[in-house]
Every structure is written in C-alpha cells, then in structure tokens.
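Input record (one chain):
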Amino acid sequence: MQVSVESTGNLERRVILSLPAGDVEAQIGSRLREIAHNVRIKGFRPGKVPTKVVEQRYGGQVRAEIVDGLLRQGLDQAVRENELRVAGLPQVTPGEDAAEGELKYVAAVELVPEFGDLDMTKLEVVRHTAEVTDADIDRMLENLRQQRGSWSKVERAAKAGDLVNVETYSILDGARMPAEGVEKTSTVLGTAAMYPEVEAALAGMQAGDEKTLDVTLPADWHAVQFAGKTLTSTFKLGEVFEQTLPDIDAAFIRSFGVKSGDIEQFKADIRSNLERELKGALMNRLRREVGDQLVAAYKDVELPPRLVENEANALQANAAEQARRQGQQLNADPSAFQEAARKRVLVGLLVGEVARRNDLRLESERLNETMRLIASTYEQPEQVIALYRNDQQLMQGLQNRVMEEQVIDWIAERAQHAEQALSFQDALNS
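The corresponding structure, as predicted from the sequence alone:
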C-alpha cells in the first residue's frame, strides 16, 4: 500500500491511498473460502457450498470489510508518520486516475488547531450552588398528588385549576384559521399553557359561552410570517372538569414503589431523586459557564471548516425533529446554526486539548457512579447497567460525557471562580 499526504489548507490534509488490486482480491478470496468452509446454507452440505453461491451472498459485505480495514490501516500509517492530530472523521472517496491493477482512495482529513497557551487560571467562572430543602420535597409531593388526581365534570363557571375543553378559530390579515371548522384543545387554567389574556378570558366562562379577543403573537413565534402580529380569536368553552386530589396515605406511597408505605422513607427517596436532578442541572450550568469563557478566550482560533459544517447540520436536524414532535415545521437551513456549531466545536476541541496536555484520564469510579445514578431512575437498575456494559456504543457515549464533565470540573477548579447560591427551582431553570 502506498500512502501520501498533501496539504490543502492550514487545518486540512489530503491523504492518497493506493491499494494493489491483486492483494485486495486475494484477501477477499481467502475470506470467502473461509466462509464457504463454515457457512450453513439450506440445500448444501457443510463445507460443500459452491464459491459462486458464497460470493453472491457475502461478496459485497466481505469486499467492503476488507477495503475498509485496509483504508483504516493506511490512514493510521499517515497519521503516525506525519504526526497528524486529526479532528473528526476523515471523509473517504474513490480517487480518480487509478493506475491499472490499483485501487485508489482519497481521504479528506481535518486537524486540531494550534491553541497556543492554555492557561485556565485566566478564566473567570461563576460556580452555582443549591440544595434540596424540605419545601422542595413538599412541592414535589404536591406535584405527585396532582399527577394522581382524578377529574370530574362540573356545571359551573371555570376557575383556576380546572381542566377545560376549548374550541377556537382566528382571523389574521383577513384570513380565517383554520379555513373551516375549529381547533380543539384542552388546558388547565393557571398553568400558563395559554396566553395570559386567553386564560383570563376563559376564567368565569361556563360551558357554551363564547368570547372574542385580540391576541398578539410573540416576536419569536415559530411561524415567522405571523410573528409579532395581532390576530382576532374566538373561544368557545366546552366541558369544565374539577380535580380531586388523593390523600398522601400508605396506599398512595406504595403506588410509587415504597413497599413499606412509610412517609419518611418516601420523602428520603424523593430527596435522593431531587438531589440527582440538581446535580445534573448544576453540571449543565457549569458546562455552559466554562464553555462561554473558553469561547471568549479563544474566539479567534481557526477551526476545521467541515467539522463546523457537520455540527451545524446536526443541530439543524435536531431542531427540525423537535419541531416535528411538537407539530411544527422548522424553516431554517444549517447556516442559521453556524455560530452555535462553531462554539460547540471550539469547546469540544479545547476540552480534548486540555485533557491531552494535562494527561487527564477517565476516572472509572466516576463513570460507575454516573452509570449507577442513571440506572437508579429505572425499575430494574441492574438490567440497565448490564445494557451499558454490553453495548459498546452506549458505553462510549457515557464515557465521553463523563470525561467531558471531568475536564469541565478540572478547568473550573483552576479558573478564578466565584460561587452564587440558587434555589432548587432556579437551579433547574437553566
């Protein structure tokens, strides 16, 4: 195999890989013969499957595996011999002008930029703190009662806390929405699920009542053609339901998996769950805080263009999927995510570089603790742990997450930092 490297930019390299076709075919043939010897195909005796049959069934897969393995070897050689520090995955395409008896491939490789001095003591980081209080536990108990509450129809005016059915249509710029019929929805008054002026109008109405009012849409409305505009909406109240909440007794507590039905044990379990949630929220805040500081300090560093482009595409795809799940449509191309993508790539590369320069290694204790915390949120935690241990992709994702958190903590400890206390609720609203 012949391997050569060409520079196509400050952070871009072109790796040319030439594979002798004869060697490739020999490896493919050897692998197919091995398969023919061991494979079981209906209608043929073991070890007697014709080569043509094996080739038809497995030839494409075997060829792809052999070529892929050789290309990886060639790329590893190029990286090692040229001391390349690769960022992201190489983009491999068939090469042109291959000589007779040769298979040619070209890999577009991007490199980690030179960051220069990485002095984390120059950063100024705000580290938020919070704790779970008895009031937070009481609030969660009330939320659980709300979740287990039952609804019964009432014949009275709607008020805060009631579940109401609503039919509505709107007029905007002379056009009716929907064009025919009405939109039907349900909401609990007082939860701010609808605009304040709408909830205020619905309170006090009885089933069958109608009201018309003007509603101004936010400037950041998802449908940009309607953003900031005022529409005239007509609301008709349907059925009204009142909620009845269960008592916090032994039966209620057992329904959440606390076999003893003991209130103190239940509160202890709630505290543990809230503390786990709080820990994650504080880490997210710290990750964002450190990330913002890194971006500000290294904003002028040149980044691999394709890596940024791929990240923008991924962000756009995620946003589009979220919009789809909410019954909306995202009207934005990847360019709208370019700045966010650049920041994510910059922070990711910096975190990796900090880890490399300071020889930071994944802490197995921290990894196991995180895995146990994740598993504890499921009914059968041991099965979840086994799933992670047996799924390489899942485990790799978890390792990456834990390693990132380690580096973020390491940076925050060495930066100039101040603590800011938050309530549990404020800490979660991040």
